[in-house]
Design a protein that fits this description.
332 residues, TATA-Binding Protein, two-stranded antiparallel sheet, 38% helix
Length: 332
């Protein structure tokens, strides 16, 4: 998009309206830019932005007691910090850093303005109840591929705790402090070139095996091509990501759910999801991917939203096997 985003002059936004901000910088702190926006419908900040958080101590994401959400990112214009808060129907955003204008430009998409929840029709009682209890759920669209792809690769075939620990360590070691007043605990993810230059011993210390680190390095070297997937339709975006060795259907779906906000980007190849879907919708905890897709067939075009609502319902099968063993290659 040509030119710098000016929240005082850009008026119309799909899915809501832009309101004149209170000011630039003075009200929000040193170097801040601001934007206020009124969504067309209810938006729950926690539900909508929650999938961007990688564990409770994610150095790129924070929530505060007042309900505000802070996140950082490496935008096409540079690193930035974003704070989003609610005041009634109004959403207010403040941003710092070279990428502040880009973050404010993308605010409606981030909060689901491009999402169409009215297109979703519940076909199961549990899904209907979960949908009714969460009218503010929107599917976020960050427009940034690599920031979701790399932590997803880290989550391949390990426990969540191991992946979150690796993400924290690598972002804090190789990222940079977040612009603005976020404090010392928030960081911006490393640049693609930095990811590609991390030495093998630091991957090892972070508990990341050679296969996952090699996938991340390949992706970082192809960052410009992969970022183009954020503007693609789902099938084309999937092909673009899966052309990289080490990126398969599970990784591409988990990435595109966040970067593209596509309601049909259903995750396959997951250890737990088919059993959860099968147990919730058919009482069968031994469901495989094929059976899960059959159960979700009535939600064609909205299968990711349906799966998300099932997960939010919390109707999971009782555990009957030991947890996945934890491996820590960084100890050796």
């Amino acid at each position: 998009m040509a030119g710098r985003f000016d929240p005082l002059t850009r008026a119309a936004v799909r899915g809501g309206r832009t309101d004149v901000p209170a000011g630039r910088g003075a009200a929000a702190g040193s170097g801040a830019r601001e934007r206020s926006w009124t969504p067309a419908g209810p938006v729950d900040l926690g539900l909508t932005l929650g999938p961007l958080r990688r564990g409770p101590a994610d150095p790129t994401f924070r929530t505060t007691p007042d309900g505000s959400v802070w996140r950082t990112g490496r935008t096409p214009q540079g690193p930035a910090t974003l704070r989003v808060s609610r005041a009634g129907e109004l959403v207010h955003a403040e941003a710092w850093g070279p990428g502040a204008d880009w973050f404010l430009e993308q605010l409606p998409a981030l909060l689901g303005a491009a999402d169409d929840p009215a297109a979703f029709v519940p076909r199961h009682r549990l899904v209907h109840a979960s949908h009714r209890r969460r009218p503010g759920l929107r599917l976020t669209r960050t427009g940034l591929v690599l920031e979701s792809l790399i932590p997803t690769v880290l989550e391949q075939k390990v426990t969540a705790d191991e992946a979150y620990r690796a993400w924290r360590r690598l972002v804090r070691q190789y990222g940079e402090p977040a612009p603005g007043p976020a404090g010392p605990d928030l960081y911006v993810v490393p640049a693609p070139r930095t990811w590609a230059m991390i030495p093998s011993w630091d991957w090892h210390k972070a508990g990341v095996d050679a296969k996952r680190s090699a996938t991340i390095v390949r992706a970082a070297r192809l960052a410009n091509r992969l970022e183009e997937a954020a503007a693609m339709d789902l099938p084309e975006a999937v092909r673009r990501l899966e052309a990289v060795p080490g990126i398969g259907p599970w990784t591409s779906a988990e990435t595109l759910q966040r970067s593209n906000g596509h309601p049909d980007a259903i995750t396959t190849g997951d250890l737990h999801l088919p059993g959860i879907i099968g147990y919730a919708l058919a009482g069968d905890r031994d469901t495989d991917d094929a059976a899960m897709l059959e159960l979700l067939a009535p939600y064609a075009g909205q299968r990711h939203r349906a799966a998300r609502l099932v997960l939010l319902a919390g109707h999971t099968p009782p555990r009957r096997t030991p947890r996945m063993p934890r491996g820590d290659i960084g100890r050796f």
